[in-house]
Design goal:
The chain is of the alpha/beta class. Helices cover 47% and strands 21% of the residues. The strands form 2 sheets. The chain has a 5-stranded mixed beta sheet with strand order 2-1-3-10-4. Strands 7-6-8-5-9 form a 5-stranded mixed beta sheet, sandwiched between helices.
């Protein structure tokens, strides 16, 4: 009898431990399935590194206006984000600094619905040295090294390389290049050195130490367009709530109420049809 009682005690203890270490979602389902369905979970947004500051402002305003939970935001170079999604990363939305990686995801049937150009940017040559804006060649020739993002990793590096190739002394300038992982990393390196670098105009607003030396003509770098899209991915828990939140967020960042946020952070607005 005592042995049977001990077995019952051990069984009860084991059940309690299993429940304790059960994933939170499973616990919630065990307690109340209906309650679990009623609580919307935050969506996960993959965004280009150059959107770091504006994404904070956009998500804060969206949460206030829509009463949705604060989204989780993962920031990285556009190429890295796209590759993670192809490997099954549970993102609901992707926002890249060019259309190339969106097209890549489209080909793999990972884009749900339409894609939208939500903002634009401009490439600049910048440094910590203050002075009048001048010619691009003067600024680059005067700098011992030139900082820019790695073109194979970051769209800002790709745009920078496009521009450099238009210059007559490209081969000479190429020997001076120092690469970083993304546009924001380039900004931080420029802050810590006396070198000039190629970064986005919007990034210069993130630092009080950085000054624009030259604005780059978009015809030379390529049009810099930020594209947003919803992701088709079973790993992203495609519940009705998540889909509604994702659609709501994309609708918001294209809206009139979001325009001032984009402009305040140094972006420009795409032409509306």
């Amino acid at each position: 009898m005592k042995k049977l009682l001990k077995l019952k005690v051990y069984a009860s203890a084991l059940t309690a431990l299993l429940f304790l270490y059960m994933p939170q979602t499973a616990q919630a389902g065990a307690i109340s399935t209906q309650e679990n369905h009623d609580i919307p979970r935050p969506i996960l947004i993959f965004a280009a590194s150059s959107l770091t500051d504006v994404m904070k402002a956009l998500s804060k305003t969206w949460v206030t206006e829509s009463n949705n939970p604060k989204p989780h935001i993962s920031l990285a170079p556009s190429a890295t984000l796209a590759r993670q999604i192809t490997m099954g990363a549970p993102a609901h939305i992707i926002m890249t600094a060019n259309t190339q990686w969106i097209d890549h995801l489209k080909k793999q049937n990972l884009i749900h619905g339409n894609t939208y150009i939500v903002a634009q940017n401009q490439l600049v040559i910048a440094s910590i040295h203050q002075g009048k804006e001048g010619k691009a060649t003067d600024a680059l020739n005067a700098s011992p090294k030139i900082i820019m993002a790695e073109p194979r990793l970051s769209p800002s590096g790709m745009y920078g390389l496009n521009f450099l190739k238009t210059l007559p002394n490209f081969e000479l300038l190429q020997k001076k290049l120092i690469f970083t992982n993304n546009a924001r990393a380039s900004l931080h390196m420029i802050e810590r050195t006396h070198y000039s670098g190629l970064i986005y105009k919007s990034d210069t607003l993130a630092s009080k130490r950085i000054h624009i030396q030259t604005l780059i003509d978009p015809k030379l770098s390529g049009e810099i367009a930020y594209t947003a899209a919803m992701i088709t991915n079973q790993a992203a828990s495609p519940s009705r709530s998540a889909t509604q939140q994702a659609a709501s967020f994309i609708s918001f960042i294209k809206s009139t109420s979001a325009q001032n946020i984009w402009l305040k952070h140094g972006f420009t607005l795409p032409a509306r049809e």
